[in-house]
Design a protein that fits this description.
- The chain has about 400 residues and is α/β, with parallel strands linked by helices.
- Helix 5 packs parallel to helix 6 and helix 11 packs parallel to helix 13.
- About 50% of the residues are buried.
- It binds pyridoxal-5'-phosphate.
- Pyridoxal-5'-phosphate (PLP) binds next to helix 5.
Length: about 400
């Protein structure tokens, strides 16, 4: 019944776990959800107030397809302020979330016979964005001990005449890894040498804890670098669906053609709120970041106190990606743990703790825990995880 392209899309593992959490809750279970990919903080009040103003003052109609001019100007102001990047509104297109921006850009540039490089462990959606265009995702290895920076020898081997682009994501979902400047420079150099598009997904840019975030495009004026950012994680605005890119004008025009015939434009009220988010007070961003940093330190410390768990300190985002390979082949209740998924399922079944197993991100040795949850919830979760793992035989 379906067109072939639908078969090329996998259901999102993280959304599946969200559904599992809802199912357990409906059975009256006290669920601890560590699978969420969104801040547990409310959207800041000044942003909500801007949306209310928009609704009461007629900003409730279609906007230009690539977003309101005032918002594209605000994006440029933000890119200058936070990232020291100089773009004009002609370089900006606003879409319905960062996911939509990535989807549109892939649709605009990639097609059958193209290869697009991503790094494992990868965000679950990257392979699908690529496959649905007919292109092939090509997976390159990374170094877990060095914030999951690329294995450049592997990268060299994987670039072919068909390679059309590279997608990078630092800070990373699922690992939280933040690449050093040198890794960024090397990637840009390779992209430029082979004339490849370089998509830099920077949606976690404000959640970098031990270093100063530098946007990929600040390292070079190579014109095939495309910067992807989003209001979702920075401003706790996941439901508002506002993301944007900064890149070449001809790319923006192509994406705008596609967007005009799919969603027409992003939501007008959310766009108005996004202007306030981007150029209004940034106080809440710092408050959320401090809370996340404290939780990261707590979660990593607690995980490393558990025998058989090894967790590197991630430099950013709100995920940890502990290595649990020493637990494979152990058992609970006569059930053998062969895979990270078995471990995740054990945690759900025994303690109603929802995590995401590494397989969906391309890893057979890890699970992903989000620390976008309160200190009390995290403490309870970590105690239960320790208990569960200590009881494995
Ligand atoms: C790496 C990465 N990129 C992009 C997104 C898209 O976020 P949104 O569509 O809410 O802007 C996410 C969300 O989880 C993400 O983790």
């Amino acid at each position: 019944m379906y067109a072939k392209r639908i078969h090329r899309i996998q259901p999102s593992a993280t959304l599946e776990m969200t559904a599992k959490a809802a199912e357990l809750r409906s059975q009256g279970k006290d669920v601890i959800n560590l699978s969420v990919g969104e801040p547990d903080f409310p959207t800041p009040k000044n942003i909500c107030d801007a949306a209310i103003y928009a609704m009461e003052n007629g900003y409730t109609k279609y906007t230009p397809g690539l977003g309101m001019m005032e918002l594209r100007v605000a994006v440029c102001e933000k890119l200058k302020r936070d990232n020291n990047l100089n773009y004009s509104p002609d370089n900006i297109i606003v879409s319905c979330g960062g996911k939509h921006s990535l989807y549109n850009a892939c649709q605009t540039l990639f097609e059958k016979n193209d290869e697009v490089i991503i790094f494992t462990p990868y965000w679950v959606s990257f392979p699908d964005f690529i496959s649905v265009t007919g292109a092939t995702p090509v997976i390159v290895q990374t170094d877990p001990t060095q914030q999951y920076e690329p294995d450049f020898d592997d990268l060299k081997k994987k670039i072919t005449n068909n390679t059309k682009g590279i997608i990078i994501n630092s800070p990373s979902n699922p690992t939280g890894g933040v690449w050093r400047d040198n890794a960024m420079k090397k990637i840009i150099e390779m992209a430029q040498t082979h004339n490849l598009w370089l998509f830099s997904d920077e949606c976690y840019e404000q959640l970098v804890y031990d270093t100063t975030f530098k946007s990929c495009a600040t390292f070079s004026n190579y014109d095939k670098i495309v910067t992807f950012q989003s209001c979702s994680k920075t401003y706790a605005m996941t439901g508002w669906r506002i993301g944007y890119i900064a890149g070449r004008e001809d790319l923006v025009k192509g994406m705008s053609r596609l967007q005009g015939q799919s969603t027409s434009c992003p939501n007008s009220i959310a766009q108005y709120a996004a202007i306030e988010a981007l150029i209004g007070s940034q106080n809440q961003v710092q408050i959320m970041k401090s809370a996340f940093q404290k939780r990261r330190d707590f979660v990593v410390k607690k995980l490393n106190e558990i025998d058989g768990v090894n967790c590197n300190l991630p430099g950013g985002a709100f995920y940890v990606f502990p290595n649990i390979s020493q637990l494979l082949n152990k058992q609970f209740n006569n059930t053998k743990i062969n895979t990270p998924n078995d471990l995740s399922m054990g945690l759900v079944n025994e303690y109603s703790i929802i995590t995401v197993s590494g397989e969906s991100f391309g890893s057979d040795n890890n699970i992903r825990l989000s620390y976008a949850a309160s200190d009390t919830i995290l403490e309870d979760a970590l105690n239960k995880i320790k208990l569960f793992i200590n009881n494995l035989i």
